[in-house]
Design brief:
464 residues, alpha+beta, 18 helices, 39% helix, globular, binds iron/sulfur cluster
């Protein structure tokens, strides 16, 4: 085959594909009704204050991963590989060796002005260091309460409250917002201990409080608000550089701001908003996101959303304002992961599972038992971070076929097919390869881009 023939012409490929799939497409349209029906459904969804979703996302009673709720127990954050956990698992000597490599690499690369690791890249990456946007369990509580305004607390139905909260949080910068009701099952997704070692306890008290040993959640605070914050695809397509890492730092800061403002909003209504006291605290983000219907678990062992793919950070808080819970979703994402494997193939230290099916067996003590997943080797992943790029890598997120701009028609169309016809999954994985969608972008070029705010596309397109 000549080089010329090997290069696939995008238009010809689409022509071939659409020709080959005409029959399927006809059935597909039939299955989903005409455009008018879909528009009507979208409007109905909007009226009841739910996330306005792409048409191929359906609500289900159980998430698309199996959970053994009896076996699942509340997890102690200190067992995860984040922060101090990694040091504990590799041992002090190995950790010091890796630290030294990371520091030397950073110094050398700055001296040599290596693109993506130069001084300007590092200055950019550290731009949020030490800024005062602090997370807090109880929130600032600095907005006037209804009492201080001489009035009663806000009252509305759970549906009205949820619609109000979604509007407010999207205004503050959240991508999607979902609700989980706390019951004996979902309570197990709240950490037993926060990252700073304090126990998280549920008690029959009126007001939440904290001391040096524990954080106490009133049993009347029964609703978990889970929300996503978009990361920049333009930045992450420069993985594993410092530019790519910057979007993680920025979204954590934005998530923290949204939390603080929402806590104050709830306080102003006369309710409690109990947030993450420390980075990634309070509860298991991907699991809560899945229960809130924000996305599905994936081969990344992270949540993938229909709207933004894996390009999000996930945050949560708890409130006593009665809200309307959401249901998990099935958008064909977990099914697609079973054949795709693109992230696992691209991972330099082979830290992601390459198996065909998820398993109950965890890779190490940093993962929680009691659910079926594509468990990752977090030690391999984090060792690579320190030994090679000195960043949080992100290659697996960047190559994922779901890491796309939602407005690309091929993408939305393909996602629709994937959700309805799993036997086409391999075909769409190959299509993604053919168009080099997973390819990384030029690091130097990033500095001259005319980027939108936060480097993200906030326009949400829902198919009619
Ligand atoms: S972040 Fe990098 S090293 Fe870790 S799993 Fe993803 S690709 Fe692999
Ligand atoms: S790259 Fe493929 S296998 Fe990996 S998370 Fe994305 S869709 Fe799933």
């Amino acid at each position: 085959m000549t080089e010329q023939n090997k290069k696939i012409n995008r238009r010809d490929f689409i022509k071939q594909m659409t020709g080959g799939l005409t029959g399927v497409a006809a059935g597909f349209i039939g299955l989903n009704g005409d455009a008018k029906t879909r528009r009507l459904l979208a409007n109905t969804t909007k009226m009841i204050g739910k996330n306005k979703r792409p048409w191929w996302v359906k609500e289900v009673d159980e998430p698309t991963i199996e959970i053994d709720w009896d076996r699942l127990q509340r997890f102690n954050f200190s067992k995860t590989a984040q922060g101090g956990g990694f040091e504990k698992y590799v041992g002090e000597t190995e950790y010091r060796r890796l630290q030294l490599i990371e520091e030397n690499n950073e110094y050398q690369r700055i001296q040599e002005n290596i693109p993506g690791y130069s001084l300007r890249d590092h200055a950019f990456g550290s731009a949020h260091s030490g800024l005062s946007n602090k997370r807090s369990f109880l929130g600032a509580q600095s907005a006037p309460t209804p009492e201080e305004r001489g009035t009663e607390k806000w009252v509305g139905t759970p549906k009205e409250a949820t619609r109000m909260l979604r509007s407010v949080m999207r205004h503050f910068g959240a991508g999607t917002v979902g609700i989980v009701e706390i019951n004996e099952k979902t309570k197990k997704l709240i950490y037993s201990h926060d990252p700073d070692g304090r126990a998280i306890i549920f008690e029959d008290v009126e007001k939440a409080y904290e001391d040096s040993e524990k954080r106490v959640i009133p049993n009347t605070a029964k609703w978990i608000i889970v929300y996503t914050v978009q990361m920049s695809l333009e930045a992450l397509k420069r993985s594993p550089t410092v530019i790519a890492q910057q979007t993680t730092n920025l979204s954590y800061n934005r998530g923290s701001y949204i939390q603080s403002a929402t806590q104050n909003f709830l306080h102003g209504l006369g309710y409690q908003g109990l947030g993450e006291a420390t980075l990634n605290g309070l509860g298991i983000s991907p699991a809560l996101g899945v229960m809130a219907g924000l996305g599905e678990m994936s081969r990344l062992n992270r949540m993938i959303t229909p709207e933004y793919g894996p390009m999000v950070r996930v945050f949560k808080m708890i409130t006593d304002l009665p809200l309307q819970p959401d249901k998990p979703i099935d958008a064909g994402i977990m099914d697609f992961c079973k054949t795709c494997k693109k992230c696992a193939e691209a991972c330099p230290p082979a830290a992601l599972s390459i198996e065909d099916e998820p398993t109950w067996e965890v890779e190490g003590p940093w993962s929680n038992f009691g659910h079926k997943a594509f468990f990752e080797d977090s030690i391999k992943c984090r060792t690579y971070w320190k030994e090679k790029p000195g960043t949080n890598c992100g290659i697996c997120f960047a190559v994922c076929p779901y890491s796309k701009d939602n407005k690309v028609w091929m993408h939305s169309w393909a996602q629709g097919f994937v959700s309805k016809f799993p036997f086409l999954n391999k075909y769409f994985r190959n299509l993604d390869d053919a168009f080099s969608y997973g390819a990384m972008k030029s690091v130097e070029e990033w500095w001259d881009l005319d980027l939108p705010e936060y480097g993200i596309n906030t326009e949400r397109v829902v198919e009619d």
